[in-house]
Amino acid sequence: MSEPRAAFGRIHSFQSLGTLDGPGVRFVAFLQGCPLRCICCHNPDTWEPSGGDLYTADEVARRALRYREYFGETGGITLSGGEPLLQAGFAAQVFRICQQEGLHTCLDTSGCLWNADVERLLEVTDHVLLDVKYTNDADYRAYVGCPIEPVLSFLAQLDARGIPTTLRQVILPSLNDRKESILALKALAGQYACVQGIELLPFRKICRVKYEQLGLCFRAAEIETPSSALMRRLEGYLADPAEEG
Ligand code: SF4
Q1: What CATH number does the domain containing 96 carry?
Q2: How far is the CA of 240 from the centre of ligand 1 (A)?
Q3: Residue 180's domain spans which residues?
Q4: φ/ψ of residue 54, rounded to 5
Q5: What is the full per-residue pLDDT of the chain (245 aa) written as tens digits?
Q6: Please, what is the Cα angle at 83 between 195 and 88, to 5 degrees?
Q7: Which of 19, 190, 216, 230 suits a disulfide with 226, CB 3.0-4.6 Å?
Q8: Alpha-carbon Rg for the chain in angstroms
Q9: Is ligand 1 within 6 A of the CB of residue 4?
Q10: What is the DSSP letter of 84?
């Protein structure tokens, strides 16, 4: 197997010890660049592919390894973004080094791209957080900027490889907070043995200032943040077998 090509990757930022991006305690590297334009994006400052700072894969892996004593049995490194698939060759190099050092590797992705580098990346990926933003093509096209098909195809590839996967969805009231929408997500998860769980995440607006600083329109500015009661109700639809009909 030939090694991935990219010598350097573009990194937006690092988080030393996070608990929200994959199993256990994790070192998170946010890769620069994203081809999508989600209406709810918290990180518009990661969009521009030529931004960020240059690092070698070895430098990123060494940074993660500094924290290995905190990772325990379940933690490790997560590559997020932006969209890490945009730098899949580089990401594969990082994960290959980390796996050789015994670190658990987790990929946080929209699943929107597929190529030979992405295949190499999946060979060294232990867990995937797949952001399934909506469950229908029209919403994907309107609020993400791509069709749903590449994402479903990516999920099928994860399933074929048996890579443990968590589906994640940011809840935006009025767009994907209906019972039917949550049950559609649950039904989708049920089609794939690789899916180990579903996480619903509340939409937040703390990113608004980033849009202002970048001179970009925050298209979700008028959308309410979901209440705790709404999130509990939606999580109930996932948990309750009586809601499956
Ligand atoms: S895929 Fe992620 S980084 Fe890209 S626009 Fe959507 S939320 Fe933002």
Answers
A1: 3.20.20.70
A2: 30
A3: 8-239
A4: -85, 135
A5: 454 455 899 999 999 999 999 999 999 999 999 999 999 999 999 999 999 999 999 999 999 999 999 999 899 999 999 999 999 999 999 999 999 999 999 999 999 999 999 999 999 999 999 999 999 999 999 999 999 999 999 999 999 999 999 999 999 999 999 999 999 999 999 999 999 999 999 999 889 999 999 999 999 999 999 999 999 999 999 998 666 54
A6: 85
A7: 230
A8: 18
A9: no
A10: G
| Domain count within the chain | 1
Check if 110 has its Cβ closer than 6 Å to any atom of ligand 1: yes
* Partner residues linked to 115 by β-bridges: none
- The answer to whether residue 1 sits within a structural domain is no
- CA 10/CA 143 separation, integer angstroms: 26
d(CA 170, CA 177): 10
Q: What is the Å distance from ligand 1's center to 194 Cα? A: 23
36 CA → ligand 1 middle, Å? 6
Whether residue 244 lies inside any domain: the answer is no
Q: Is 107 left (phi over 0), alpha (psi -120 to 50) or beta?
A: beta
| pTM score | 0.95
